[in-house]
Amino acid sequence: MGRIAEADKQVARVNSSAPSGESRRLRVVELQGRNLDRFSRAAPSNLDELRLPMWEAGGPEWPVSKPFNAAMAAAVAPRPFNPRYSADWAKAKEDEARVLREQQVREAAEREAKALENYRGPRWWQGERA
């Protein structure tokens, strides 16, 4: 079973490196051996369905357990709580709007201060004349 899985990995590698215009692809070992075009509900993959017990240890002999994959664990991990998707969505929306308004006011004040700092003409509001 392990050799079949390794051969299928090699088949996938060869198929993925084929030129884009080439439509011919290698079939996985089981499809070739069973003379099938594809797996279906009536003809499922024996490798996917097969479970062999390990009599001494009590765990499954096949499929071989895979090591922990952190990327896969992150993909299925629960997402952090977001109040926008709860019963308090209106309050969360108001809070977001308030933060945005405060940021806009702060940025406008910074732009005005920079403009005044760079202004070289007469300051009529301070009583200066040209």
Structural account:
The chain has 130 residues and is mainly α. It folds into two domains: 2-76, no CATH class; 83-119. The chain is built from five helices and two strands. It has helices at 2-16, 29-34, 46-49, 70-76, 89-118, and strands spanning 52-53, 60-62. The longest helix has 30 residues, at 89-118. The model has no long low-confidence stretch (mean pLDDT 85).
Features:
single chain; 130 residues; mainly alpha; two-stranded antiparallel sheet; 2 strands; elongated
Question: C-alpha Rg, in Å?
Answer: 33 Å
- How many distinct beta strands? 2
Q: How can the largest sheet be summarized?
A: 2 strands, antiparallel
β content, as a range? under 5%
- Helical proportion? 40-55%
Number of DSSP helical runs: 5
Write down the domain tally. Answer: 2
Based on Cα principal axes, name the global outline. elongated
Q: Tell me the distance between the termini.
A: 92 Å
Low-confidence stretches: none
Kindly state the mean pLDDT as a whole number? 85
Order of helices and strands: HHHEEHH
